[in-house]
Each structure stands twice: as C-alpha cells, then as structure tokens.
Amino acid sequence: MLTRPAIKLTHRGATLLLAAAVEAAEAMGVPQCIAVVDDGCNLMGFIRMDGSRVLSVESATRKAMTAATTGRPTGGISPDKALLLAEATSGKMTNLLGGLPLIIDGHIVGGIGVGSGTSEQDLQVAQAAVAAFLKRMDEGQHS
C-alpha cells in the first residue's frame, strides 16, 4: 500500500476544544493558556485567558506539541533517550503535566496543552476539553 487514510483535526474541532477548556477553567476559577495543534504540530487555536501567566503561553504550546508528537499525555513520559534527544535538538517538547494527545480511531490528530494553573489543574482542564471533543465525536458530529 502506498497511501493511508487520514483523519484530520478541523478548525471546528480546535474551536470546540478551546471552548470546553475555557469553560472548565472558568468553573475552576483558574485562568489558563490553552493551545491546540494538529498532527503536524501546527498551531490550530490558542487562547490566553485574562489573568493567566504570560510565560505559560510557551509551555501550553509545547505541551500540545509534545502530546501530538508522542501520542502520550505529558508529565508521565519516561525520560527515554529519544525524548531527551528530541528536546535537546528541537527545544519544542516538554514533560510537564497538562498536554494530551487527540486520538481518533487509532490516529493521532493533534494535541491540546494547558498551562498557568497547578500541574493538576492544567491536566483537569485538558481532560475536560478532550472529553467534550470525544463526546461530540461519539455523537456522530464529526463536522
């Protein structure tokens, strides 16, 4: 086989993820920086909520990119040689909690990264966003 089917994250999917993350962050009372990337680590959506830490802009984006690249949640990735090499050469990866991959039918379609709260708060916001995204997918609302 010379080609394979691909499932791609759309701007509507990125917008849904951002909205769900903002809703979760507001409910917690914790302003966040939220980044959504596609499977190629291209930024699809970003929001810096009022009151969030400006330095979290970069960490949220790196969390999203790391999750999309590795297909694993950030914060629990074992420090294997490949991850360390990628971090050293690209400077675009991180292993802080708050990054989750977006996986549909076994295909990594992107990642979300959240930063500005505690590590646990960042992860909770990311989890809420991914749960809303997967619920919409399960409901058959793919567009």
Automatic annotation (TrEMBL):
InterPro entries named among the record's database cross-references: GlcG_carb_metab_protein, PduO/GlcC-like, PduO/GlcC-like_sf
Parts forming coiled coils: none
Signal peptide range: 1-24
Entry-linked SUPFAM superfamilies: GlcG-like
Signal found in the keyword field: yes
Alphabetic keyword roster: Signal
Superkingdom of source: Bacteria
Record-given protein name: Heme-binding protein
